[in-house]
């Protein structure tokens, strides 16, 4: 990863956490400890962050408590071809006029590219999804009330009296931090609170997760596997994960990524 890109990621992370540790930054940038320490030192000298023991912090922290989730613009570039393939299969489940909920996330965001010519009723807590659909689709778009978390591009409210409970959907489409035998996992308690409210407003829960999510874990469980109706993933799903999903009685949809990867390369070349 180029130095400029690492610096962009580091500056983004220090804005959303009280302290960005060296270990966190190493994982996000896939750089060595020595490289991260040099980057922090350089940004400290430039007056763009404050170097602290074991990491770095922002010079002007956000007033709203940050979420534990990774920033949208960082996650958006990860496993893009897989996410596109998964999103295409998700949109294939939708019929004209359907009322659906799309939870904020970088995999669910990829659905917008295949919804352009659809006419649906869409409820979403994603600022990015709402903005794209308003500009590039024929769908009716609804948003909940709450605070906008810019880094994750989502709208969250800790209160029960938002408009969420007034919307009924046939399906809810949702990503996740991880999936394991105990259920669907997320990183942040506020995100879980908001997602649980949304889940209650839909008949079916459709989970969109790329194959790397079966290796990831979190200490917070959003819901058990028996609440998931359909899981869409890519064709690199491990055999153990496939067996876990099928044994849980979940409909498994495996998206082929080969064509999507060619599509991504063609778009880049253009």
TrEMBL record:
SMART domains: DeoRC (SM01134), HTH_DEOR (SM00420)
Residue ranges occupied by any HTH deoR-type domain in the UniProt entry: 3-58
Matching Pfam families: DeoRC, HTH_DeoR
Molecular function via GO: DNA binding; DNA-binding transcription factor activity
Keyword DNA-binding listed: yes
Keywords carried by this UniProt record: DNA-binding, Transcription, Transcription regulation
Origin: domain of life: Bacteria
PANTHER family associated with the record: HTH-TYPE TRANSCRIPTIONAL REGULATOR SRLR-RELATED, HTH-TYPE TRANSCRIPTIONAL REGULATOR ULAR
Name the record gives this protein: DeoR/GlpR transcriptional regulator
Organism of this sequence: Microvirga aerilata
């Amino acid at each position: 990863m180029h130095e400029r890109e690492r610096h962009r990621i580091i500056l983004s992370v220090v804005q959303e956490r009280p302290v960005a540790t060296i270990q966190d930054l190493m994982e996000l940038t896939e750089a060595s400890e020595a490289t991260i320490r040099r980057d922090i030192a350089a940004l400290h000298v430039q007056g763009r962050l404050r170097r602290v023991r074991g990491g770095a912090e922002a010079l002007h922290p956000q007033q709203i408590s940050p979420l534990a989730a990774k920033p949208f613009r960082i996650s958006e570039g990860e496993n893009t071809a897989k996410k596109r393939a998964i999103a295409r299969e998700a949109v294939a489940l939708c019929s004209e006029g359907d009322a659906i909920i799309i939870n904020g996330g970088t995999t669910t965001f990829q659905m917008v590219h295949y919804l352009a010519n659809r006419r649906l009723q869409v409820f979403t807590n994603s600022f990015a999804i709402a903005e794209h659909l308003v500009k590039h689709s024929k769908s009716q778009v609804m948003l909940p009330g709450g605070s906008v978390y810019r880094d994750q591009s989502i709208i969250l409210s800790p209160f029960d009296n938002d408009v969420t409970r007034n919307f009924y959907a046939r399906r809810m489409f949702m990503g996740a931090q991880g999936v394991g035998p105990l259920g669907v996992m997320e990183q942040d308690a506020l995100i879980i609170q908001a997602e649980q409210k949304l889940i209650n407003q839909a008949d079916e829960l459709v989970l969109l997760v790329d194959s790397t999510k079966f290796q990831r874990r979190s200490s917070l469980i959003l819901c058990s596997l028996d609440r998931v109706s359909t899981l869409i993933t890519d064709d690199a799903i491990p055999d153990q994960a496939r067996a876990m999903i099928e044994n849980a009685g979940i409909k498994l949809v495996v998206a082929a990524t080969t064509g999507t990867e060619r599509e991504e390369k063609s778009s880049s070349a253009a």
